[in-house]
Amino acid sequence: MTTDSPWLAQGEAKRQSILDAIPAKWRLADPAPPATELRDVTGSYIQQYLSEREIEITESDAVDIAAQTTTGRWSAVEVTEAFCHRAALAHQLVSCLHEIFFDAAIEDAKKLDAYFAEHKGPIGPLHGLPVSLKDQFHVKGVETTMGYVGWIGTFQGKKNDHRFRTEESELVRELRNLGAVLYCKTSVPATLMAGETVNNIIGYTWNPKNRLLSCGGSSGGEGALIALRGSPAGFGTDIGGSVRIPAGFNYLYGLRPSSGRMPYQGAANSMDGQSTILSVIGPLAPTARSLTLLFKAVLSQQPWYHDPLVLELPWRDTVVEETRSWIEQAKAGKSTLAFGIMHWDGIARVHPPIARGLRIVEQTLKRLGHKVVPWSPPSHAIAGTLGHQAFNMDGGADLKHHFSLSGESKAAQIIINDGESISMTELAALNVAKREYQKQYMDYWNSTAELTGTGRPVDGLFCPLAPHAAVIPNEYHYVGYTSFVNVLDYTSVAVPVTFADKNVDVRSADAESAEHVEWKYHADTYHGAPVGVQFVGRRLQEEKMLTLTEYLGDEITKTVGAQ
Amino acid sequence: MTTDSPWLAQGEAKRQSILDAIPAKWRLADPAPPATELRDVTGSYIQQYLSEREIEITESDAVDIAAQTTTGRWSAVEVTEAFCHRAALAHQLVSCLHEIFFDAAIEDAKKLDAYFAEHKGPIGPLHGLPVSLKDQFHVKGVETTMGYVGWIGTFQGKKNDHRFRTEESELVRELRNLGAVLYCKTSVPATLMAGETVNNIIGYTWNPKNRLLSCGGSSGGEGALIALRGSPAGFGTDIGGSVRIPAGFNYLYGLRPSSGRMPYQGAANSMDGQSTILSVIGPLAPTARSLTLLFKAVLSQQPWYHDPLVLELPWRDTVVEETRSWIEQAKAGKSTLAFGIMHWDGIARVHPPIARGLRIVEQTLKRLGHKVVPWSPPSHAIAGTLGHQAFNMDGGADLKHHFSLSGESKAAQIIINDGESISMTELAALNVAKREYQKQYMDYWNSTAELTGTGRPVDGLFCPLAPHAAVIPNEYHYVGYTSFVNVLDYTSVAVPVTFADKNVDVRSADAESAEHVEWKYHADTYHGAPVGVQFVGRRLQEEKMLTLTEYLGDEITKTVGAQ
Asked: Do A425 and B421 touch (CB under 8 A)?
């Protein structure tokens, strides 16, 4: 630390203050063994610090917890304390939190318990459920750094702004209405534009299943925290894969809804006002039904009356019912469901664990009698270019400004280049090119109606969400598997499948000879990393995709279990 | 005409070719008397050229016509010929057409009749209904100039483009599926960015009710044609008022839906790719129920599967039913409806006929027992600035390019300035400012729940749509009454109320003394001009607003009739 780099000290002080917010009783006396000796700190490793009761609570999913807390069987305080404890442990193991406000959470939980006692019922469908938040959401009494040292002690980098520690984002307001308990905010890469989570405050957030690897990004703290069951469910954001990547890298489900469903109003963001590809909010959780619980609960708050970018589109039960009727028909042996599978996109070869994950999915779909259609879409290279141009339209001006506030260094993993801003005429051309690509993809999707035999186009598309199962630090070179969905603005769900296995996932001769881009696959390093895939649906089809995910996720797990 | 200005000859040749497309039997032997002698060419004036049967057909509204043509009582050919005839007359009276393709229309009508004969039923809900189109929609076999001389003989200004005369816009494809007959395209101001309709091809489109005045713009040809009943209904587009202005100026209803409902895919546009304020498609017609017919019919084609910007939001009958139940309660003397009224926006004083129009509306609402709430919104000056910045973001580059194709002159009425393009950072700030304004307006709207006594905020807002009833050429100086709706992306319907009356609409002493902007009111010149107002609803509430408009439009007419 030199006087030339005061940001180092500022980051260090903030890092220490996060640790200091952990009650002494929950501090680890000894650090965990190095990752080279012990990769996986989930499961029995973290359980050693918890009581049986805490394990019972924190390893229940959000649906089961809410079933207990909304009926008064579990108190909000007990549940909140259990998750605070486990989140504190998680942070000490993989460095996944930016803000800790356990005291406020326990106060809130006490009020919820009092409410329940008085009214003999819950305040809302999430009564007493702890929910974690990516560090973009403003919570009263708590600061938001979004990983920037220059934001410490400010409101989004603005000093002496009356909104500092007084604002709440719209999503936070709605979660409180619903009865959720807020207790921590999770780590992100500064700028949010990276597939790993690294910044000059908390350092690097590691993958709890394999601490040699990244937890993903940019909602990486969410992924790591939930993987360790330090949270039953949380909200991230996704502009190029930032919900799906950490979900997939941590054996979680994660939803990237189409834009216009979840309220972004009043949340911090990067490149705010860039409207070619909008960042969206989505939930992450260990079970698909937890995503449904959270997504549906937020919609019940009618966010379209509080956020001008949200569409008046309530949760559509009719779509759920129709989708379930197709599932029932399939279970009765007469499937009318059909799915596309894209094993790779013609640009970036995937590592053997991902290829195997997709084979497991294909095997599952066929076992269930669903039609599987190979996917030959308009070139994903076009989507990749469009996404790159959109993210870089300001030549990196926004992020340069925020880094300059403290003078801090920029992590190598950030995908925004130093460059020239484009002109209005170039932007218009970009927006037209994006729309034309969306139209081509839409027409292609429609065209599959001729192949499915169901009278409809495919009901969803399975494809990789990254070339690798989690990733070796600094080895995330291709985000095209997730960002094409953002260009299209489609619904997409990250679905956990299996874990990388060095004994099974050996590199094939075929892959070796491929002339396509392929990055280092180290079977040993990746061993144990979660393998997630992506399940993509059409724009705004969140109800359908969540319903199908609940069904197919369980069936994929059965396939893996039977192997 | 000089060799320096070949565009004059090109425009003249195109103008003549439009007239030449009118069959000899439908050409007027004598021109109409000058406007100074005869302002109004609607009604009995145009009727003199038509048979009783033609008058019966062309003065039926779209709903009545469709009731006849979808049941085989009227043939598509007879209806089409009647409208072709009347459209030909309309064009000769006020210069409202850019393209005439009557022969193709009659061929299409013959096929529809044959279809009906064979299948004993209609091809769709618009079977045999002629529908006019603003000259932005591509129709096979027909060119699209959008008022630019430089587009003559090209595809959107591109020479030797294979799409020239071969493309059809998505809306056109859907209208054909629905059974509509397409027969003409209507005049626009080149650039579409004007409240009057003037270009170097057809010259100036006049207001049929008062030919001293403008028909409005930019969907001015639609307004004029439908006012003369040369079309029962048509589609325009609206980025700053371009559907509502010509509707209001021509005693018509016109809907500006929120963005994302009607398919713009494959239509020509100005400043395509400018995505801060999107132009939207909306219908114009003499009756409110005709708007509903067209809007609902297009949605039945599921445009969200064919246009990436359309939302998966089918026509919502449940909203119609709920709205109707409120109307029924009101009719039973227990109104639970409440409306805002904004008599002026604090920026531009309105002329006496418009002020009277709003008093008629207020009187109607009170007579019906509805709560009327005064409107004190966030400053509309902010909306005006945001709209101006959005429309001018490219410094006029797009329109300069298209004018330069022929070297033609730019009309004075066009609201885009020659200026500098803004930067990406400025654009981002503009997009954020727009969203913040939308949020403020939304919060204000919500806040009216405390004033209505209905438990809901106001169900709609009545306000001016322009400071004047139609407009004296070159006197349209303030589009803020319509453009604030585009900034907000709200649903808005132009509603006809009455006609300017020089004996009633005298300038008040109060208005004289006002220090606010006010433009010349010539009671005599404006005499007879239609007075329309605007009925604004929240974003994406088209079903509710159309249902309320059908009800309130009739009641407003009753109020006027009783005076």
From this structure: yes
Comparing CA positions, the residue from B540, B537, B559 lying closest to residue B548 is: B537
Which helix (H) or strand (E) element contains residue B352?
helix B352-367
Task: Kindly write down the DSSP assignment for every residue of B56-86, as one continuous string.
Answer: HHHTS-HHHHHHHHTTTSS-HHHHHHHHHHH
Range of the domain at A19: 6-244
- What's the CATH code of the domain at B422? 3.90.1300.10
Is position A62 within any domain?
yes
Alpha helices in A300-423 (DSSP H): 317-331, 352-367, 380-391, 397-404
Please tell me the distance from the alpha carbon of residue B139 to that of residue B165, in angstroms, as a whole number: 7
Phi, psi (rounded to 5 degrees) for B516: -85, 165
What would the two tokens of residue B301 be?
């084609």
Q: If you average pLDDT over every residue of chain B, what do you get? A: 96
Cβ–Cβ contacts within 10 Å for residue A506, how many?
12
User: Tens of pLDDT along A236-263?
Assistant: 999 999 999 999 999 999 999 999 999 9
Does B228 share its domain with B377? no
Instruction: Considering only the beta carbons, identify the residue of A305, A393, A431 that sits closest to B442.
Output: A305
Identify whether A423 is part of a domain. no
Look at residue A387 and give its three-state secondary structure.
helix
Q: Please tell me whether residues B275 and B330 are part of one structural domain.
A: no
Cα separation, A107 vs A81, whole angstroms = 11
Q: Is the peptide bond before A218 cis (omega within 30 degrees of 0)?
A: yes
Q: Does the structure show a pLDDT above 80 at A15?
A: yes
Q: Is residue B1 part of a domain?
A: no
Partner-chain residue, chosen from B395, B425, B439, that has the shortest CB–CB distance to A397: B425
Beta bridge partners of B282: B236
Using CA of residue B325, residue B331, residue B336, residue B340, what is the dihedral sign?
positive
**Region A298-308 average pLDDT:** 98
Q: Let me know: does A478 contact A354? Beta carbons within 8 Å.
A: no
pTM of the predicted structure, to 2 decimals: 0.97
- Pick the residue from chain A with its C-alpha nearest to B424: A394
- Check CB contact of B184 with chain A, cutoff 8 Å: no
Q: What is the pLDDT of residues A350-394, one digit of tens each?
A: 999 999 999 999 999 999 999 999 999 999 999 999 999 999 999
Q: Are strands B338-341 and B460-464 parallel, antiparallel or unpaired?
A: parallel
Q: Which are the catalytic amino acids of B?
A: 134, 218, 242
Residue A242 among the catalytic residues: yes
Q: CA-nearest residue of chain B to A542?
A: B312
Q: CB within 8 A of B484, min separation 6: which ones?
A: B345, B380, B383, B384, B387
ipTM of the complex: 0.97
Which of B240, B239, B204, B201 is closest to B221 using CA atoms? B204
Residue B510 pLDDT exceeds 60:
no
Helix (H) or strand (E) holding A544: helix A542-561
Rounded distance, CA A402 to CA B407, Å?
A: 46
Amino acid at A340: G
Looking up tokens 């006594």 gives B453
Is B421's CB within 8 Å of A423's CB?
yes
d(CA A415, CA A218): 11
Last residue in a domain, options B272, B305, B338: B305
A422 touches chain B (CB under 8 A): yes
Q: How many residues appear in chain A?
A: 563
* Phi, psi angle pair for A443, to nearest 5°: -65, -40
- Which chain A residues are Cβ-neighbours of B431 within 8 angstroms? 273-275
Residue A378 in tokens? 């308009």
Q: Compare all CA atoms of chain A with the CA of B311 and give the residue at the minimum distance.
A: A540
Alpha helices, H only, A263-351: 288-299, 317-331
Q: In sequence order, what DSSP letters do the residues of B78-131 get, joined into one string?
A: HHHHHHHHHHHHHHHHH--EEEE-HHHHHHHHHHHHHHHHHHTS-SSTTTT-EE
Please name which of A500, A560, A534, A475 lies closest in space to residue A248, comparing C-alpha atoms: A534
